[in-house]
Amino acid sequence: MPTSAEPTRDTAAHDGATHDTATAAHDTNDDVWKSDEMVAQWVAGAAERERRRAGQRRLMAELLPFDDDEAFTFVDLGAGTGAATKVVLDRFPRASAVLAEYSPQMTAEGERALSGYEGRFRYVEHDLARGGWPDELPSTVPAVISSLCVHHLPDPRKRALFSEIFEHLAPGGWYLNYDAVSTEDPVVEAAWLRAGDRLDPEAAAKRAHRSPEEERRHENHVRHMIPLAPQLGFLRDAGFEGIDVYWKELDYVLYGGRRPASG
Is the peptide bond preceding residue 7 cis, with omega within 30 degrees of 0? Predict the structure, then answer.
């Protein structure tokens, strides 16, 4: 399966953790995102990853339909350490965020990372894989964002999540998702691999010499990843309009849409 971690780029593509209810015997998400050691390893490389993602983070914020000085509250699902939230809060000084996250370790790191935004954010414990919209989240919001977490969900849960988001968006409210996707086309797969290795000359060596911990994280990363087209279909089926791929580079995408203003 071609993904951002295999074959093109060896990344730990995660902002927020999810619990995989489809794994009956053993939960590999717990192994990764509820492990102090694994989260510490992930955090150690976060600054470099965020440097590479800076443009996509800014674009997500710019796509939100708010005036510069407008006060609003948005939800960040699978928020992880709050990297996406931070950019939105910087862009809109009167905005506030509710961050939904499954991993206590990631939440603790996020609270430290966002300490300069005291009073403008709060975390809510929420496992995206289990479904439902917790009472601790606002029942209606003008915007929902997610980053690098939807790909952890099995397809039925992806579809259900998009419907849940739609139901809790205010009319005219937007949902934006930055994530990794796969392809079923071997020609595209080869092109992604070729370009990814040229952009990162160390990528091939990283793939060939993963530590056991890195291999577990990689397997967790790719197991539910799917192509882009079905995910856009899930948005359409949920009722979104204005659906577009607002940015794409190889196996990374930023897509979304809005709830109709009249519905």
Answer: yes
Tens-digit pLDDT profile for residues 56-89: 999 999 999 999 999 999 999 999 999 999 999 9
Pair 14, 33: CB distance under 8 Å? yes
Q: Characterise 250 by phi-psi region: left (phi > 0), alpha (psi -120 to 50), beta (else).
A: left
Q: What is the pLDDT of residues 125-184, one digit of tens each?
A: 999 988 899 999 999 999 999 999 999 999 999 999 999 999 999 999 999 999 999 999
Spatial separation of the C-alpha atoms in residues 34 and 57, rounded to whole Å: 25
Taking the chain, what is the end-to-end CA distance rounded to the nearest angstrom? 38
pTM of the model: 0.84
Give SS3 for 149: coil
Domains present along the chain, CATH in parentheses: 28-258 (3.40.50.150)
